[in-house]
Amino acid sequence: MPTEKIRKEYPDIAPAGPTYARAVKAGDTLYISGCTARGSSAEGDSAMAQLRVTLDRVVKIVEAEGGTAQDIVKITTFVTKMSDWYPVDQAQIDLFNEYFDGQNPANSLVEITALALPGLDIEIEAIAVLG
């Protein structure tokens, strides 16, 4: 029997564009499209301000499905300037500890040329296993 796939939108947390779902739930797994700080006061702000908003959005999507930050098993972090992210500084460590309480997900850090809009410097996509 095929696993049901449910396309999900979270317009009050992180609105999606017209060509993709914000997340797809397949069984107990939630696949979250890349989130940014778009439309928030952090858009165009520092890397850490954007990281806080982006992590907050990802975690709130998981919580909307009954999960917690510790249910996030994998993230892929896209950044426009690697030197903002590596080597890792204490501010970044503190944010990850705040959201994941030492239960960090697997993470790939990828530098890219640009994101969808100027002023966006980080995008995070995530996979959570609920339950």
Describe the secondary-structure layout.
Blueprint: E1 5-8, E2 23-26, E3 29-35, H1 47-64, E4 72-79, H2 90-100, E5 106-111, E6 122-129
Parallel strand pairs: 4-5
Antiparallel strand pairs: 1-2, 2-3, 3-6, 4-6
Helix pairs in contact: 1-2
Gist of the model:
This protein is α+β, with helices and mostly antiparallel strands and about 130 residues long.
Main traits of this protein?
single chain, 131 residues, alpha+beta, 60s Ribosomal Protein L30, Chain: A, 6-stranded mixed sheet, 22% helix, 28% strand, globular
Q: Quickly count the helices.
A: 2
Oligomer: single chain
- Kindly provide the radius of gyration, computed on alpha-carbon positions and rounded to a whole number of angstroms: 14 Å
Helix-strand pattern, N to C?
A: EEEHEHEE
How many domains would you count in the coordinates?
1
For the sheet with most strands, the description reads:
6 strands, mixed
Low-confidence stretches: none
| Helix-strand category | alpha+beta
